[in-house]
Amino acid sequence: MTSSNAAEPVPATLRVRELMTAGLLSHAIGVLCDLGVPDILDAPRTHEDIAKEVDAHPEGLLSFLRAAAAAGVLAEPAPRTFELTELGQVLRADDPRSIKAMCSLTCRDEFSRTWSDSLHTARTGEPSFAIGHGASFFDYMGSNREFASLFDRAMQSSAAVDNLLAGYDFSGAGHVVDVGGGRGTMLAAVLKRYPTLRGTLVDLPHVVGNARKTFVDAGVADRVTLVPGSFFEPVPEGGDVYLLSRVIGNWNDEDSLRILRTVRTAMRPDSELVVVGMMPSENDRTHYPQQLDLYMFALLGARLRSYAEYQDLFAQVNMRAVDWSNYPDSESVLRARVL
Ligand SMILES: C[S@@+](CC[C@H](N)C(=O)[O-])C[C@H]1O[C@@H](n2cnc3c(N)ncnc32)[C@H](O)[C@@H]1O
């Protein structure tokens, strides 16, 4: 959010007010996504017309539409008439870059409550999620299927899969073990790209239990083994490649080292570990990695790590990072080997 009049400096009080109400803006965008407003904006429409189609109150909806227009995801080409801008296209479910599910997820009570309790994180260094929910984030997901399902859909709406396919060549591998692989979207995409590759998906029982359909839909189910379990317990041996995608970034150093030791134990000397995740770098053009670092810390007590910090982590488990493909503002792909 920036002021449009560059000639006159924005008073500090106004600028800080903008920052303090930025959370309202994210909720306004989340509400519009939940209502499906971006999905029906193929052409400019009046607020009354939009409200009728998405079953909302016209005057109530108007404030949300105007907040989104002030932020540039909608435009108001005529009074009370709105259209989707180029920026706002990514809020549509049918856009290939869609982050609609991520916007809905970010505005859920579970997150709002965590941010409200985050003074606890600042004072103690502990995550705040459990204060309002009585369980850690992943335990909570185990007993809240609707939230878990939205989380899975949000996870799919990122460049992680594309970055992995562009940044790592699986053609020399026969078997990939995806540890903490969620419902298998990433593994399914990899198996689809490499038709002779076999895959094993490891994740918590409630997650793996819902993964079969992903592989059936992708037409690769005959090449997949589903393994319910925890990466704090032994994981299957025999993989040429072990994948940890957006996993290590969810845990503090102590737990991350436990996960890496588990995986290292399963690896052969010639296996490779591939880590996919946000790794802040000097190439990042937005504040997003910094915000995500705060997000992960308040939610999970975890830190984003740079490539150099990953190297330090690997050194503690007798592994070494071999190289990485850095994707600015997005998930990078790191290769590591056993020493
Ligand atoms: C952020 S998601 C990433 C999913 C997937 N790898 C991806 O990149 O889309 C983290 C995953 O770690 C899984 N997870 C959390 N605790 C786990 C544990 N103890 N053992 C195995 N998986 C776990 C979660 O269920 C979730 O699927």
Automatic annotation (TrEMBL):
Domain of life: Bacteria
SUPFAM superfamilies: S-adenosyl-L-methionine-dependent methyltransferases (SSF53335), Winged helix' DNA-binding domain (SSF46785)
Any one Gene Ontology BP term: methylation
Key words of the record: Methyltransferase, S-adenosyl-L-methionine, Transferase
All residue ranges annotated as the O-methyltransferase C-terminal domain in the record: 123-316
UniProt keyword Transferase present: yes
Domain O-methyltransferase dimerisation: 19-91
Entry keyword Transferase: yes
Gene3D superfamilies reported for this sequence: 1.10.287.1350, Vaccinia Virus protein VP39, Winged helix-like DNA-binding domain superfamily/Winged helix DNA-binding domain
Protein name: Methyltransferase
Organism: Streptomyces anulatus (Streptomyces chrysomallus)
